[in-house]
Every structure is written in structure tokens, then in C-alpha cells.
Amino acid sequence: MDAGGDKPVEALGLEQEINPFLGYRSIRLTLSRPELLKDQLRALLRASGMVSPGLVRIMVPMISGIEEMVAVKKIFEEIKEELESKDVLFDPYIPLGIMIEVPSAVQLAHLLIHECDFFSIGTNDLIQYTLAVDRNNEKVAKFYEPLHPAVLASIQHVATVGEQAGKPVSICGELAGDPFLAPLLIGFGVTRLSMTPSNIPQVKEVILNTSYSEAKKLAEEVLRNPYVDEIRRIIDFYHQKVQQNL
Is 5 within the bounds of a domain? Predict the structure, then answer.
């Protein structure tokens, strides 16, 4: 449950905060109130026993360091033992993943990958935390730039860590549903894209016309360039070449 901060849940009785994006939210909230975390994990595990294996996956939001994930896994194992003692069916191999949306998680990706089964990069928050830009503040909206080299380097780094470990890396957030960026994300090594259903046809069409080797070349060229406008031009030129070859 990614609750608290900018996502208020009235039933939790949380106080308003001056800076909710940096506040009492997500895993910080549920680890300090473990009964909330236990209820969620218990419900998800029970649900996993009612469907085919692999259909339920659990993702932990707002992880910033190893200690948080270790604490979650400890509670997770306790709930598994509790359900086993009551003969409750559940998927014993249910995947447990991490939402990468904090710069510290990007830096520790090579360590965090050993504590989970998959990564999902939450680009909306990752952009605002990396660039120190409130994405809801119109006065600084121009600084919220998905194509900023630091943002792209972070995505590429996390994807590479996942690829080397043989674990899937997905993208969620507005970037995932942008057909303009799909070849670049594929070139970075991202294996899954999570988007609103209305974006699927366009993104799917672009992917079907994308050569993986060309996408890798695109990613390499983009990562060598420090200028946002030039990066946008490089991606645009890639799409023009694809259209000419159709």
C-alpha cells in the first residue's frame, strides 16, 4: 500500500505534512505500523492460493535501503509460517519485488537485487526525487524532465543490474506508456512496461517495429549525450528512420 504523504487514506488518521513527498508514507508508514503490513501480506498470500502460481506478485514501494527490505522479508516469512500452521494454501514462491523510485535505491540496486525477485522503476517519483522537482508544482514544471541524462542513466543502471542478475525489470509511470520512449527503454534492457490500457496499442505497434540491436545502439548514443534537446532529437531521428523502412 503506497499510502500516506501525498496519497492520504482517511481511515489511517494521518496528519498533514509540510512536505508529504519526503514524509511518512509507503513502507515507512507500514513498517512503523506493522499490523498494516501484516494484514496486507496475509491477504496477498491467501489470494495467491486461489489462483494459478505466478499470477500474484508483491511489490514494496519507497524502499531506500537494505534494512527496510530485510525487515519486510522477515515479516513476510513470519506470515508464511503463520499460514502454514493453519493449513492455509498460498503460493510459496510468490515473487517479492522492489519499487525503485528513490535515488538511494538506484545506487544500491546491485545489493537490493539480491533481496528480491524483480525491480519496477517508478519513474514519476524517481524523476522528481532525482531532479529535486515537485511534479505537482507548476512553477517548476519545466525542470521536471524525463529525458534528463541523470534520469536516463538511473534507468539504464537499474535495468543492467536486473539483466545481469537474470531478474525482470519493469517500468511504471508515464514514461512506460509513451511510444516515443519505448525503443529507448527496450535498449536500456527494460523487460516489462506497465501502462494504462489506452496506451497499449500505440506502444505495442512501436515495439513490434523495433529491432533490439537498433534499440541498443539508440540507448548507447543517448547515454553519450549530456543535452536534453539533443537526446530528444536522437530519439526522433530513430523513429523517422523506422518509419522510412516500413
Answer: no
The grid coordinates listed for 78 are 513470519
Q: What is the tens place of the pLDDT at every residue in 176-233?
A: 999 999 999 999 999 999 999 999 999 999 999 999 999 999 999 999 999 999 999 9
* Sequence-distant (≥ 6) Cβ neighbours of residue 144 within 8 angstroms: 127, 128, 131, 133, 135
Within a domain: 14: yes
| 4, part of any domain | no
How many domains would you assign to the chain?
1
Q: What is the mean pLDDT of residues 25-48?
A: 93
Q: Is residue 16 part of a domain?
A: yes
pLDDT given at position 146: 96
